[in-house]
Amino acid sequence: EVQLVESGGGLVQPGGSLRLSCAASGFIFSDYWMSWVRQAPGKGLEWVASIKYEGGEKYYVDSVKGRFTISRDNAKKSLYLQMNNLRDADTAVYYCARDREYLGSGTESDNWGQGTLVTVSS
Amino acid sequence: DIVMTQSPDSLAVSLGERATINCKSSQSVLYGSHNKNYLAWYQQKPGQPPKLLISWASTRESGVPDRFSGSGSGTDFTLTISSLQAEDVAVYYCQQYFSTPVFGQGTKVEIK
Q: Do A112 and B49 make contact, defined as CB atoms within 8 angstroms?
């Protein structure tokens, strides 16, 4: 059974940093693209970042470029999101998701974690 | 960037009746040479993560009831629930993955 378990969320002040982790099990982690998707309270889904299976390709939504860094450790079957210079607008539940692939590119997300809440507030 | 627009924002349907959700992309998500539409549909129930229902615009995931169907091509897509059940109350999102992923704003489905 595929399992994705996020951790690392919490309350942080504007301008602060946080590192999210996602522990994967039940599948060959190194075979899959992975993504972070967030959802602000009462709002819709927003894709944040994706990373290819070997880590060589990374993509970000414009609003987090230069502030967030996605990474992975295939030996530890873990995905990470380093978030710096956090803003109020970054407040959200952050989901870790496993992506399928077609012709070398990530496609739809077929498994999701339960999410971890990040609150940016003074 | 591709913009995904869903309609309506919410709808109330009687049990057993049909629910139809539309999704329009600002540019085509059809990869013509492979005849594939890079479009997925997700269901999100309160307090739960999203669940993938349909990929490639019309391919239903294993275990998803056949009352759920996806159709459309290019820029216009539809998710249809042929006979609404109580457990289908949720927010539904379309997503394009032709370029960096973008979700629609969501459509809330309720019981009338």
A: yes
